[in-house]
Write a structure and sequence with these properties.
The complex is a heterodimer of chains A (293) and B (332).
Chain A (H helix, E strand, L loop, with lengths): L5 H31 L6 H18 L5 H23 L9 H23 L4 E2 L9 E4 L2 E4 H23 L1 H11 L1 H6 L4 H23 L4 E2 L3 H16 L4 H21 L4 H15 L10
Antiparallel strand pairs in A: 1-4, 2-3
Chain B lengths: L1 H11 L2 H25 L2 H26 L8 H18 L3 H23 L5 H21 L1 H4 L21 H23 L1 H11 L1 H6 L4 H27 L9 H14 L6 H17 L5 H15 L3 H18 L1
Classes of the chains: A mainly alpha (293), B mainly alpha (332).
């Protein structure tokens, strides 16, 4: 079979939509680390809850706007859960060593996995695409699902909104300040505890949104949270932990590495991502855009 | 530090007391299988052997985490490589048992050397965890996808177990086999942890900068610890393969690496025997809880959250603390 160069474009687009999901996830992960200095292993669990919520909500909201409303409600429910977790659990361990923080959020994965099992069961669930997002777009003789472009659009919109939030608002300024000097911000009279809760709520909202967005393209299963979180670790490692633009860059790289890796060795596409992570940690331990601690 | 204090406590104890406890433990270990077989079932005996296997795995892991302060999230790789190397040698090459048994831990150690070589330089818990996780997942993908060599997700079935430790009729012969090997390994690990090397390792955990400052080659010590840990994890993997007589790529998966960390946390990472206690709790509880409910994760997760929040030194650490305050109270 002669090599068709347009396949590269196909892979590029699919890699881009993958990258946007990874960015939505990784931005929440990296935001929490950047501001609160906590690695949230359970971030994948919030993504999973978002996806399952989308499943349930689309069962009830069948109107033409149903899916769009779902995209707003599902993450909101997720971020309420996130707020509860922050206030009841995470708050107690900010001052403790990183190892215990990792173990606590790791333990949360088990809890959430089983809660999802109790609520939704173990059957594979499928979320239907709304009519307006079904169908294909033609480019260079290839058909691209419209939904790919929708995902890319959502990712771009979130990136722009996050940029505006961080750079142009007072909230963003305080946030960046407390990432640099938590105690100083507290001394200036800001409620750092409340700020942390807000950041965690925002991060879990992003996690829930990515889950709701990915839901129509995959079969929902209990393993999906951990699968994505490991990829997100790679993304934040590549981009630089705690840096939002690093998360974007890392996601774009990881998305393309996966998309083209699958062309070279279909069975070992994930392996390319792990090799990427290992190479980055060895040669640039703080990521492409990260600062040395 | 806690380990140091526990050790001083041990030497203070009189020699007769030592021999007494040693004797009682020996008798108990010999009696266990017969009691279990008579009063309970073969399945309980199987669980006890499983505890031995995971106790060895968790304790060799703890050399890296508890003593070395390195949060490896990839120890499933060494356990799995040990099990896979052993099983593949038997099944693919019809290699003699002794040879396969000796080769497998060295294979695990070599993989440990490669992963460790790149990892020990890495600072920061999360970075260390991610790089070890990445390497371990590579090994997993290899075992999972390289069907023509590793049998892929079918795993390796019917590992030929020699008659003298066959578990077809009774688990008792294999119990003693696993017990002897586990005890030898634990003794070596104990000697290592008490040696100047072990002390050095702990000083690296507490303050790597200062250790480097007084001329200790930090990375070399960490690498040696990593390789030793991989070696004994490999032994545990071999014992596991012989116990189950079949293995699947799941033993290389990240969740296995996670489990062994949790065993350390449950039992207490600051105690030499803590991880073994954690392994026992985990294996027993798992079998107990799953016979009542399918929501083992909910139970495990909640327990771990409580431990992290209230008893970060693990149940073993908690028991030792209580014992010490009790002894103090008696002296007064």
């Amino acid at each position: 079979m002669p090599f068709d160069p347009s396949i590269l474009f196909v892979q590029f687009v699919s890699g881009l939509s993958r990258a946007m999901i990874l960015f939505l996830m990784a931005s929440g992960l990296t935001l929490v680390f950047g501001v609160m200095n906590v690695i949230n292993f359970a971030h994948g669990a919030f993504y999973m809850i978002g996806a399952y919520m989308a499943f349930t909500l689309t069962q009830y909201l069948t109107g033409p706007l149903g899916f769009w409303v779902t995209l707003l409600i599902a993450p909101t429910i997720v971020c309420i859960v996130g707020g509860i977790v922050e206030v009841t659990l995470l708050r107690r361990i900010y001052k403790k060593e990183h190892l215990l923080q990792i173990l606590l959020t790791y333990a949360l994965i088990f809890v959430f996995n089983d809660l999802i099992k109790i609520i939704w069961g173990v059957d594979l669930r499928i979320v239907n695409l709304p009519k307006s997002l079904q169908g294909f777009v033609r480019f260079f003789g290839h058909r691209f699902p419209v939904y790919y472009f929708f995902i890319i659009g959502v990712g771009t919109a979130v990136a722009i909104l996050l940029w505006l939030l961080l750079k142009k608002t007072r909230f963003g300024k305080v946030l960046r300040a407390s990432a640099e000097h938590r105690d100083m911000v507290g001394l200036l009279g800001y409620n750092v505890g409340g700020l942390f809760t807000l950041v965690f709520v925002l991060a879990t909202w992003l996690g829930g949104l990515s889950g709701a967005v990915i839901a129509p393209t995959v079969r929902l299963s209990l393993g999906m949270g951990m699968e994505i979180i490991i990829q997100c670790f790679i993304v934040v490692i590549v981009g630089g932990l705690g840096n939002i633009w690093g998360a974007l860059l890392g996601a774009l790289i990881a998305g393309q590495v996966y998309a083209f890796g699958i062309l070279i060795l279909p069975n070992f596409a994930m392996a390319f991502l792990f090799i990427l992570a290992a190479v980055i940690i060895i040669f640039r331990p703080y990521g492409l855009l990260g600062k040395a601690a | 530090m806690d380990i140091g204090r526990a050790k001083r406590g041990a030497t203070e104890r009189s020699n007769t007391e030592k021999w007494l406890w040693g004797g009682i433990s020996c008798l108990a270990l010999i009696a266990i299988p017969f009691v279990l077989e008579k009063g309970f079932s073969q399945y309980d005996l199987y669980l006890v052997i499983k505890i031995l296997v995971f106790a060895l795995f968790a304790m060799s892991f703890n050399l890296v985490l508890g003593y070395g302060g390195m949060m490896s999230f990839g120890h499933a790789a060494f356990f799995g490589v040990g099990a896979y190397c052993f099983s593949l040698l038997l099944v693919r090459a019809s290699c003699p048992l002794v040879l396969a048994f000796l080769a497998a831990p060295f294979a695990a150690a070599i993989v440990g050397l490669i992963i460790g070589y790149f990892s020990v330089k890495i600072k920061g818990v999360f970075y260390f965890a991610t790089i070890t996780l990445s390497f371990a997942q590579l090994v997993y993908i290899l075992a999972f996808k390289w069907r023509s060599f590793t049998f892929g997700d079918d795993g390796i079935q019917g590992i030929p177990v020699p008659a003298f430790i066959s578990t077809d009729v009774s688990y008792i012969p294999y119990y003693f086999f696993a017990l002897v090997i586990t005890l030898i390994c634990i003794y070596v690990l104990w000697k290592i942890s008490k040696s100047p090397f072990g002390m050095m390792l702990m000083s690296l955990r507490e303050n790597p900068e200062r250790a480097a400052f007084i001329g200790i080659k930090v990375e070399r010590y960490r690498l040696i610890a990593f390789v030793i840990s991989a070696f004994f994890s490999g032994v545990a993997g071999v014992l596991y393969a012989l116990l189950e007589t079949s293995i699947a790529p799941e033993i290389l998966y990240w969740s296995m690496s996670g489990d062994v960390i949790l065993m350390g946390l449950l039992g207490g990472m600051t105690l030499f025997l803590g991880p073994a206690l954690g392994a026992a709790i985990m294996v027993f509880l798992n079998s107990f809880i799953t016979s009542y409910t399918e929501y083992w994760g909910l139970f495990l997760g909640t327990t771990l959250i409580l431990i992290v929040l209230f008893f970060p030194k693990g149940l073993g650490g908690l028991a030792v603390e209580k014992y010490r305050t009790w002894v103090k109270g008696k002296k007064k």
